[in-house]
Amino acid sequence: EPNDYESVLPSRFEGNLHPYERSQAVPALRVRLGQQGRSGSDPLVYDDTLAAEVIKFQRQNRIKADGI
């Protein structure tokens, strides 16, 4: 949904986000990558599913595909 996407703009991240870390930015990142509603037990954890989507985005945009 464009409204969902626009609701998390601009995205604000402080430093690098690594898999398995917790961050207030994770829910917005899920929305930006179309993964809302797919979080595990802790919606603030950057889990494997989200990391896979980040890597996919990085590859599509010719960014180093490290999930960070």
Short description:
The chain has three helices and no strands. The protein has helices at about 1-5, 25-30, 50-60.
Could you explain how this protein is built, in words?
This protein is mainly α. The chain is 38% helix and 0% strand. It has 3 helices and no strands. The chain has helices at residues 2-7, 26-32, 48-60. The mean pLDDT is 86.
**Helix amount:** 25-40%
The poorly predicted ranges are none
Helical region count?
3
Largest sheet: none
| Ends apart, CA distance between termini | 25 Å
**Shape call:** globular
Q: What structural class do helix, strand and pairing data support?
A: mainly alpha
The run of helices and strands is: HHH
Strand content: under 5%
Tell me the Rg in angstroms.
11 Å
Task: List descriptors.
68 residues, mainly alpha, 38% helix
Tell me the layout of helices and strands.
Elements: H1 2-7, H2 26-32, H3 48-60
